[in-house]
Each structure stands twice: as structure tokens, then as C-alpha cells.
Amino acid sequence: MKRNGSRSCVTRKTRFGSRERDWLKGDTQRGCVCLYGGTVDPQPSASGAQTTSTPQTDLQLVLCSTRTTVEELCIQRNGQGLYVQLHGDLIRRLDPAERPLQMVYDYLTSMGYSDPVRVQHEAANSDLSCLIRFYSERPVNPDQQERTLLKGVFSVRKGKTQLHKWAERQVILCGTCLIVASVKDSLAGKMHILPLVGGKVEEVKRRQHCLMFSSAGSQAQTYFVNFDTLADYQRWHRQASKVVSQTVSLVDLSCYSLETVPEYLFYCQDITHLNLRHNFMSLQGPGSLLNLPRFSQLKSLNISHNRLGVFPECVCEILTLTELNLSCNNLHNIPVQIGNLQSLQTLSLDGNHLNSLPEELGGLFQLNSLGLSFNNFSHIPAVLERLSAVDKLAMAGNQVDSLELSTLVRMSHLRNVDLRLNGLRWVKSDILEPVTQVTQLDLRDNCLGSLELSSVCNLETLHCQRNQLETLTLSGFTLRMLHASSNRLSTVNIYPVPNQLTHMDLSQNLLEYLPDWVCDCRKIEMLDVTHNLLFEVPSRLLNSLSLRKLLVGNNRLQRVPDLLDHVPLEALDLQHNKLAELPDSLFYKALNLKYLNASANALESIPPSSQSEESLSTLQELYLTGNNLNENCGAVLVGHQNLRILHIAHNQLLSFPASKLSKLELLEELNLSGNKLKAIPSTVSSCKRLHTLIAHSNHITVFPDILNLPEIKLVDLSCNELTEIQLPDSLPATLQELDLTGNSSLTLENKTLNLFSNITTLKLDQKSSVTPGDSLTSPTPWNHGYSEMRGQRNKLCVSVLAVDRFRDSVEACYGIFDGDRNEEVPRLLQCTMGDVLCEELQHSSVDTVYMCNTFLTSHRKLGMAGQKLGASALLCYIHHESSDPAGHFRLTVANVGTCQAVLCRDGRPVQLSKNYSLENCTEEMERVKHSKAIITEDNKVSGVTCCSRLLGCSYLSPWVLPKPWVCTEPLCSQDEFLILGNRALFERVTYEEAVRTVQAVRDPHAAAKKLCTLAQSYGCKDNIGALVVSLHISEDSCTCEPPVSATEPRGSPPASVPVSVTPCPSDSANLSSSSGVITEFSSETSASEVGSEAGSTASDEHPSSGIAARPERRCSLHPATALCVFQRQPSCATFSSNHSDNGLDSDDEVPLEGVISNGSKLEVEVDIHCCAFQLRSGPPESPKELNLENRGSDYRNGKVRRQNSVVVSATNGCLLAVCGREIGDLKKSPSTSSLFGKKLSNGSVVAPEDSHNLIEVALEAPKKKSGYFTAPAQQDPEDQLIVPPSLEQEVREQLKGQTTLLPGLSTPSTPTTLKDPSWDHSQPPAFASNLVPGPAAIVQQEVYDTAL
What we know:
The chain is built from 28 helices and 63 strands.
């Protein structure tokens, strides 16, 4: 997978040589600038700028310092100027005094880099060109040039008659006109200008590549133009067709990086609307803004986002203007000449630095719209009192800290007042005179503690969300809509009764009861009082004849009043209350009810749908998750034959009546998870519209008959007890995802797997296996499970990273990435972020440094994909303190965006992350406001994202930054688990509920599944992702296994390991297994290989001698003594027992302990407590080998505890080392080993651990079908033991005293005939091949490391 978005980012790295490295040494103010698009001669520069010795036509590395200016670089290069492009967007010409390298340094510093050396290093990185790039000349964009100006010499004839002859003329299409001029002197000579707006452009069929252009009106003129090529003909036809289709003379030149207006545009005197937004228009020179008065009919001018710095006074000379937009231009004042624009009706000055307005502005009596948002006003300008035509005060995002209603009285023309995001602390209403003209008032996101607006007697709409309101008093004469959520209100006072009120939102307050006047509202249609402290819902309210939507979830309701008569209620939300029953008359009195959510209550039954056999129910969505319902509810559900969505998860259902399910023919989504079902009724096949079936965490043993359904898309039967699957001859083409993880007894045949190969996302179990790599390391005191669910968009934009053994040590790395509406960025982060963290840990051991740099580097590595797209990201790293490797574990968390991490400590949630949404982070809101971003009414930066920090979305810089929040927390024995989730999860599931949920389930995989199911049942429609990490941390972070007595039970069988199977056109890759890690493999892998992995089961039969014989597992804190560590070159992995001298012939009847024979194959288990290095291996090649390697495993606390064993081979009584791959293959990336060369599925795939790469035990030995390796019986003469230089001295010392040490170190798992003899160490410690001992020599405990 390509990890950056620019092809040139890959090849440019070879251009950075020794000369450039020498230049950077010693001075952090030195660096290099990459120049694109020009050829430079390498010449020394007196100003400190140098070029590389090899000139390149497309790229030049220019060595310079932070003091080097553009002028100096141009002199040194004989160039005309330099251009800069940010985030692949607009291109700006640099001023001669600007310093390019300093610009790069400032940009990196604003991103979050703080170390000068790191800033210098990043500035020299070629990948940075996707964020900031310099050009030696302006790049030419043909498409942009075509839309701006078309020009050429063609054969032209005037008029429709034959009187005029064809002649060569220069033809220009610019703006709204077609210009025909002389070839020699197009500007000074005679010109024919043909206005095209409202005219016609037609194909001339009599001539090839000929167009007829006609103007509009009674005196229309016509020109015929004959083009030379088909490409020219199509290009002119396409552009001219756009012009003639316009109803007004509009020219849109926005986002073209223009510095001047094209000269030919000034000949289009019919232009009335000109859009120059997002350019770099100059104030002086030909074609600059100074020439705009030449447009004699111009009415609308947009020059926003042009970095002007000063108000262009020349605009005040265009007296015909009615609309002027100067937003986001860094303006500090408005000139008095603005008074000349007497025709001006709309003036937009948002996003500047204005703090006052000239008095002359008050003379614009036709001005009816004035935008002053996101400036620096500390009060409402007095000049607005004279602007009698202005009906809206738009001053959001200023610094007005108080509002006096007397000011609004004087401005009797104002109807709409917008003062959100101003830091308002009080609204003063000391006047007796009422405010009669204001009908709409927006006071959102301020600091108001109380609000008294009873004097605003004609108020219709009030927005006061996210304040600190404790009291609210309003006039109800004309009130129609009230939005007051996220405050501290305990009551709301409105007088008189608001009979016009239709919509009221009082959610997330402290209401214990609803005011009486609410029940008296005659027109109330929507009432939201969720997340309050309500104990009851008034009967009068529920029986209202106007109420259509009632949301009372997350309160303390114990009962719902009966319905007395038919009501028009359409949506009812009762979730998260204490309801034991619903009113019996609910469904047959509320016949319009289409949505009901009663999840998270204590319901034991649901009311009938009707009083008779015939039901008139129109219910379409029913959510009953998290109650105490049993199978009797199925008979009641039959009456709701219009049901489309049914969630009845996590109840007490033992079965679902088959006859009842068949009647729900319109059902589209069914969730039965977390019950006690043993089967899904076969009548589910009657639900022809069913596209989603979720039934995880049950006791289902038989695969339901659902694959014949024509619209089925998603089937989740994970965490059940499936044993086999009966499939039709073909699968429906609509099936996209099938999850069968957590079914430990499931065995899939080859035919079944081949049939599954066309499913986009297939998740299966790969059984946990004991590998030599695991046996040489201490067990990880954690394991994980995760779950992801698609939302309404049917596109999964959440990805998860999980590595239980990170960097081949007792460390872990977990992450979750949420792209909101894009899936590209989360996938890229999933593939790269683990690698980046590994690299950063090599450079720094300070948590804030390496975590921050990991995020910033990942932001850069997104390349072009990160220019317009972004994602929230959270990364957790479990590790020891670098200064104390044997100390306690520490958890370092970093995040941007809205992904959150919660640690359960002593049964209580501990928040470890920071929510970087504008609504929840006051300091970030102030920072974004200070940088003059436009925040829309839904609190999104430029209307794009609600987050102030993201990875990607670099075009929103400096408003949206990639610098993360970093937090480090020491782990202790009271820490039970860690929960990672995206915004959608924690918006619906509180931290407390999430902790209670995981505590009740314990299994991480099932817990993650349940969290996502709960969020969906609570009303979430977006993508949901949850990752649960179970922690088993002792007091001293020890991971030693306590001694196991002979009478101690062995525990439960090993947990299954999920595997995601995704069809892929690429070559098949090795399967990688790890505890709790989901991997992905190609569908081209043979079915027999897949079957051996998916269908094999770890053996739970343990020899009676195994318990007593197996030594205890040791950790890095309490290691056992190891004699020596060898590195071994490739050798044979298996051997013939007939040639072995271990005292056991092939016909012996009694096997030795620790020796497992299989015909001519022999495997010896050698106990190893602790070693300096790890031997890494992959999964076994067959079910038999899997069972053999798992024999002797121990399972405790639901976590796999593997036997410390390594498979070795012996010839003539000698132990031979297990051979491994090359070092480069062994040290593959931990986050990409499962993804390399494979197509990513719609379902995210967790990257496997680095320590589980497959090791080839015999490099040149062919495989047998049994999965064992065949190798020669005799030892290879070239086999030799190699001691790493760093261990040579240690080995010498150990060999001196091993004669006395060996008897005490013999293990019960070693063959009895090999226990007593000792090594013959008469040879010098060069360890040549003749060091191998004879048949009488002892086999001492060794670890052969293949990763050195």
C-alpha cells in the first residue's frame, strides 16, 4: 500500500546527499528548500544559499538559512520570483523580503513541533511538499487556464449570409464575451465583441469542427468559427455553452490563484457579477483591483479571502455596486469613502480585525444586510442606529461581554440579533420600555448565568444553548421555538402561556418536573427533555392533541401515564429510565406512532398492539434493548406488521416464536444479540426485505437459513456455539459482511470457505496457538477485543489498531481512528501509526515528545489524502518507564478529535483523553476564534468539522491542528480494563455505563460487541467503533505465573482468535496469529490451508505428568537463570528417530515425558524461563501440529497462558537450532504485517503482533500435507553455533562453571537419557562446527535466537 499521496514524495529522497547533510550540521538555522518547476545552475552564493551539485529540471534542493530572502535566492538562480503552495491549494507569489526557510520553520512550529533540531530535520523531509511547496515559476494548470481564458487563431466568418468571406482572425473567449480581433494587433486594432449571455452556441453540421456563436437581443450578431482540431472544438463548445446558459452576466474566477484580472475581461462591459474570492489580488498595477471601476455595470463584487490587509479604496468608486464581500482580508479599518456607495444593499465584513465603523457608513440608507461576525468589536457600533434598513445584527464571534436591551430599543429596525460566541456574561434589562421589534435572538455558546427577556415581548425564536443558565424568564405572547439545552436550568418561567410554541428543547438540564404551562401549550409538536431529572411525565402532556415527538430519555421515570384518547404522537423516546411496564393503551391509542425507543429500562413485557385480532399499528422502528423481556414478547410483536427495524438485544429471550417471525415480512433490520437463543427460527426466510441480522452473544448452534434472502447485507453471529454451516449453492450478491468469530467449535469445510471467498468482509476464528516465539517471552498481562459497526451510510469509516506485543517486548499499542465520512484517512493511519511510533521511540523517551511527534509525522505521511480529508485519532501505548525497565507499567495516551479513552480503576471510569470538539473545549474555541476562522451555526470550522484538532484536513490550518493531547498514567493492580471508542459511541453510552457493561461481560471481544450494540439501540446512526483492553497488572507489574498444584484445575479452553477474511487479487500471504488479534488474508489462499486454521482446536487434554512437570512461567522482573544464548544458522527442523541416540527407538511403547513422536518425526519440548532474545514463529501448519504445540497450555483468568517450549531437532544425540528467516523478514512492521500486499476490507482489520511472523523451520525442505517438515536425518556439515560478539564473554564464563550447574537445572520435560551427561567443553570458545558434542554429551538449555 502506498503510504503517501504524492508520487514524487517517493523518488525525491534520493536527492538528499552527503553535501546536504554536512550543510545541516551544527546550525539549526540552516536547511534546504525544494524548488519545483525550474532549472538552476549550481553556483555558489555569497548570501549563504547553495544549490546541489546536480541540476534537476523538475526539482532543485537549494541550501540556505532562515535569513535567506526570496530576493537573494532569485539573484543566485537568475530567477524572476518564487511561489508557495500550501496543502496543494492556491499558489501565491512570494514577496522579495520573505524568507522561504523561515516560512517552513514557522509552519512546522505552528503544527506543534518545538525542538529546533527536529524542526530542521522535518523541514528537510521531502514528504513535507504535500503541506508546503515552493515553485521557481508559476505552475500552469490547463484546466484552470481553460476556464479563465480561451484564445487561438481560427478561420472566422461574420453573419449568416454568404456575403462575408472566411478569414483568419484571433478569437478570444473571456468572461461573458467572444472577441474577434486582428491576428497582428489584437489589443490595439479593431475588435468585434459579441456578448454571449442569453445567446446561442450551435454546431454547424455542414462544416467539420465549426461552431456558430450568436448574441441575444433584437440586433443579434452571429460569427462562425472553424476550429482546426476536434479537441479545440470540444473545449470551446463546452466553455461557451456554460456562458450562454447563464441568466445573469456572472464571471466566476474564484480559487484561481489570480494576482490580476485578465486584460480581455475588461472588454466585457455587460458583466454585473464578479467573483474573485480566494485569490491573491494585488492592489497596484495593470489588471489589479485598481482597475475594477472600468466595469461600468458591476453590481456584485466578491473579493473575500484575498489577504488584502487594507480596504481597497478603489472599490468605493464603483457606484453601481449593490453587494460587496470583503470577508477574511485582515482588515483593521473601513475608509470614510465607503459612504460613496449609496446603492449598496449588502456588505460582508466578517472575519477581519475591525473594532469600529466610520460614521459615513450610516449614510447608506439602502443597506439592509451588514455582516460583522468574527471581528474585535467590544460593543454594538452606534452607527447601526442610523442604518434603518438593516434588519439583522450579525455579530457572532466578537468580544461583546454585555448586552443592554436599551440599545436594541434604539435600533428599532432590528428583527434578528446574532450574538453567539461573544463571551456574554449578562443581559441587562433595566428599562421599562419593551423591546417590540426583535423576533429572533441567538445567544448560544456564551457565559450567561441567568436570562430575563420578559421585556422582549414579540420574541418568536430563542437560542441559548451551552450557557450556564440557572434561570430563564421569557414572554410567551409570540414564542414559537425555544432552544435551551446544555444549561443548569431547574425551571423555565414563561408568561403568558406560549400558545404559539411548536418546538422546545430543554435537554441536558436539571429539571425535576415540567412546568404546568407546558401542558397548556396548544400547538406544541416537539418536546425534548432528555438528560434531566424528571420523575414523571404529566398525563395532560402525553394526551396532547398536538404533540408529535416526545423525547424523555435519560431521566428517572418509573411509569408512563395511560393514553385516554387517540393522540397524534409519532415518535416516543423513553430509553434509560426505570420503567417496569408501558401503558396498555399505548399502541392502539397512538396509531400514528412510528418510532419507539424503550431501551435500558426494566420492562418485562410490552403492551398489545390492539384490542382485537386486527391491528392498525404503523410502528416502523422499535428499540427494546437492555430490558428483562422473555420469549412471550414475540406474540405481541406480530401485531406490528409494518416494523422495519427491531432491536431486542440483551434481554432474556430463550427463543423467538417461528410462527410470529414469519409475519414480520417488512422487517429490514433485526438485532437479537445478548439473549439466550439456541436457534434463529427458519421462518426468518419469510422476511424478504431483511438486510441486517445481528445475533451475537447467544447460544446458537445451527446457522440460520438467511443466505437465501435476496437483500441480506450483514450477518453477525459471533460469540455463539456454531458447529457447522449449511449453505445454499450460491450466496446472494448483496452479502457484504459475515462475522463468525467467537464460535470455538465451528469447523468450516473447504467448499464452505470457497463459497465465502466473494464476501467483502468475512471474519473467522483462528485458534490460539503456542509458538516458539511466545514461549521465549513472558506473557502479556493484557488482551483485547474490538468491534465496529456501520451507520446509515453503509460505509465503515472507523479503523482499529491493536498490537498486544509491541516492539517484540512486553509492551502494547492500541489505537482507534474515526474519519467521520471518509474511510481513506483512518485506513492510512491504521497502517502507518504503529510504525511511526516505533521510529519515534528510538529518538526520544519523553512521552510528550514521542507521542506528539508520532501524531505530527503521521499527519505528514497522509500526503495528498490528508490535504482535504481528516480523522480523529487516539493512540495508547503501554510500556515500562525507560529509566526503570523493571518498574511499573505506564499508559501513555494521545489523541486529537473526538475519539476517547476511559480507564476502569476500582470500578470507576477515569478519562484519559481530551474531547477536541468546539462545543466541549472552551480554550480551543477561543484559539480558533482568535485565528479568525468562520464558525458556522452548527459549530463547525468553515462548516466542515466540529473538531479543532485532527490528523489531515491540512487545508484548514491554522484553525485545525494535528498536535495531540498527551497524558501518561501509571498502571496498578486496581486497573481492570481500558475502553477506546469514537464519538458516536460515547455520545450515546456514558463512561459509567460503558464501565458497567464491560464489568458485566468481562470477555473483551463480547464486551466491545455489546458496547456497539447498545449505542445503536440508543439511537446512533453513525459508524461506531469500540476497543476493550483487559488488564491484569499485579502490584509490581509482575507477569510471573504462580506455581500450579497437581490438584488445581486447568481452566477453560482457549479463547478463539478472530480472523477477517477478505477477497484479494494479490498474492496470498502468510497467516499471522495472535491472541485477540483479527487479521486478514487473501481469498486466494487454498481452502485446505484455511480450513486447517479455521477448523482446528487447541487441545485441552493434558497428561497427568504435565502439570507436575511443567515449570512456572517467569517474567522480566523475576527471570530464571539461563546458561547461554546462541544464534544458530539454518538447520534441519525434524529428524528420524531411528538415527537419534536419545534412548527411545521407534518401536518403544512407553514415550518419554516432553518427547512427542509422530512416526519418524520427533519434537522435544525444552523449558526456557527467561532469555535475552526472542525466537519468533508463526502458526503451525496443520491442526495436528497446533494440538501438539498447545499441549500443556494453561488458561487462567480468561487469558491464554502458553507452555514455554521450543521445537528443536536432534541428530546423533545433538540438538540443532530452529532456523529462521532473514533478519529483515523477522523484523517486519507490527502494524502492517497483516496488511501488506492485501486488499483492505470494508471491515477494519487489526494489525497482528510482530512476534507472530511465520518462521520457516527448514528453508529448503519441502512441506508434506501433514504440515510437518521433511529434512535429512544427518547433520548438515555447514551447521555451526554462532555466538554474538556481545555475548561471547558471558558464554565463556558460563561454560567454565556449567559442570557444577547442570545437574540442578535439568527439567522434567527433558528425556531421561539426556539428563545426566555433561558438555565436553575442551574446545576453545570459537564455537566452530566441531564444538558439537558427541552422543554422550548433555543437551543443555539453549535459546537459539534468529532475530539477532
